[in-house]
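Section 5.1 Outputs to date
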Amino acid sequence: MGEEKEISLEEVFTRLQETIENLEKDDITLEQSFQEYQKGMLLVKKCNEIIDKVEKKVLVLNEDGGTDEF
């Protein structure tokens, strides 16, 4: 299998919105809803991973003009 390319937080949100819309359809089968739910949970996990990475990179400017890690 090939390596998974890094996707942006915005792309994850877009895919998550599409998954939610699919789950809200009236004609979705139970099996399809389980698949969409699983896909959605993986997207939420990816979203959390991206946010964690960003939080680790955020620097807060202190009073002395230096930076402290967030």
